[in-house]
Amino acid sequence: MDIGAPTGLPVPIIFLKNPSNGHAEEDAYTKHFGTIDQAPKTSYKPLYVPVLEHTFDLNELRKVLSPHQFFWSWEGRAQVKLFGAIIFTSQRAVEAFAKASDLNISKWERQGLEQNASKLEVPFYAVGPATAQSLEKVRKEFYPRCWIRGGEDAGTGEKLADLIIAEYEEVCEKRKGNAIYSDRSLLFLTGAKHRDIIPVKIGAAPWQEKVHVEEMIVYSTKESMSFASEIASTLESTADAAVRWIVVFSPTAGEGLLRALGWLRSGSNVVHSADHPCWVKRTTFVASIGPTTRDYMKTTFGFDVDVCAEKPSPEGVKEGVEYFMRSKGLVP
């Protein structure tokens, strides 16, 4: 595949995801790609095309975050056993957690009850830096005595499970004798579609006392009805760029993206052969957030992404993109 010529203009980089909190300027990818490196001196123009629509189901979660478990006041109330920790593997789960917490506060404040959530002391386990960053805002506002583990040090569910297995026994030992925290179970907030690697790996670990993972579905996802039109519009508006990037965060966007780019064979879900004109002096490049999406693009469509981030983070994506551009002579 031929590579197009380099440019000194800002490089459009299209992120196939919803921006954090619905505001592009607040998203970690905007902030990170908005800075200009000294070597190479490359600037970017971040753009966002949402791929998924999310529907939240907060009923069960709000029950867990009831006044008893929310610790408005312990006086005169029956002892309540709490989950020993909470697991988050996506920003959508954090968003559901924040919404449920806020709704409960609004409800009880309207009844004139005083907020006293600060006594809650459990670890929050998060996959990847983006999830941890979103969770930190919720922790500060609602659960200041809780603490976050994982994040950048646990970029996958498997790594997070290893971290929990390595340290959760000690967490339980430190609060032994506290009836409130006698339940060693972990609450796993997740979407309707998710991998089971965390509960399976934790369930199989050699614990001194059994640790159970309670899975709670707090949101569901489907492909956005507007994705096809929005990606087509964004590609059209950036068509004149000498170089542009598209970052894929989930397998869901794969077929729609490749078809919008004209890289799939007519009536097929396989990309064109290597001698097809679409690959000549190609100026559009694709990065994946991690190996799951990379492998899906390869096995399903026969498409090799140009970059697979070593870490599922803005830093990881940028490092991969800029290494590729340097190696191909696409930066001045």
Structural class: alpha/beta
Rg for CA atoms: 23 Å
| Arithmetic mean pLDDT | 84
Distance between the amino and carboxyl termini: 21 Å
Oligomer: single chain
Query: Count of DSSP helices?
Result: 11
Q: Proportion of β residues? A: 15-25%
Shape: elongated
Number of strands: 11
Summarize the helix and strand pattern as letters. Answer: EHEEHHEHEHEHEHEHEHEHEH
Q: What about the largest sheet?
A: 6 strands, mixed
What share of residues is helical?
25-40%
In short, what is this structure?
The chain has 332 residues and is an alpha/beta fold. It contains eleven helices and eleven strands. Strands 3-8-7-4-5-6 form a six-stranded mixed sheet.
Helix-strand layout with pairing:
Layout: E1 11-16, H1 28-33, E2 44-48, E3 52-56, H2 59-64, H3 67-70, E4 85-88, H4 91-110, E5 123-127, H5 128-142, E6 147-151, H6 157-174, E7 186-191, H7 197-204, E8 213-223, H8 227-237, E9 244-248, H9 254-261, E10 284-288, H10 291-301, E11 307-308, H11 314-327
Parallel strand pairs: 1-2, 1-9, 4-5, 4-7, 5-6, 7-8, 9-10, 10-11
Antiparallel strand pairs: 3-8
Helix pairs in contact: 4-5, 6-7, 8-9
Provide keyphrases for this structure.
332 residues, alpha/beta, six-stranded mixed beta sheet, five-stranded parallel beta sheet, 11 helices, 11 strands
